[in-house]
Amino acid sequence: MKGTVTKTTGSFYWVRDDKDNIYECRLRGNLRLKDYKFTNPVVVGDRVIFEKSGESDYSIQNIEKRKNYIVRRSVKLSKQIHIIASNIDQAVLMITISEPKTYLEFVDRYLVTAEAYHIPAILLFNKADLCNEKEAEEMTAYINLYRQIGYKCIELSALKDDSFDEIRKIMKGKTTLFSGYSGVGKSTLLNRLDPSLNIKTSEISESFKSGKHTTTFAEMHEVKNLGMIIDTPGIKGLSVIDIPKEEISHYFPEMLKLLPDCKFNNCTHIDEPSCAIKKALEENKIDISRYRSYLSIFDEEVDKYR
Ligand code: GDP
Ligand code: ZN
Question: N or C: at which end does the chain have fewer Cβ atoms within 10 angstroms?
Answer without folding.
Answer: C
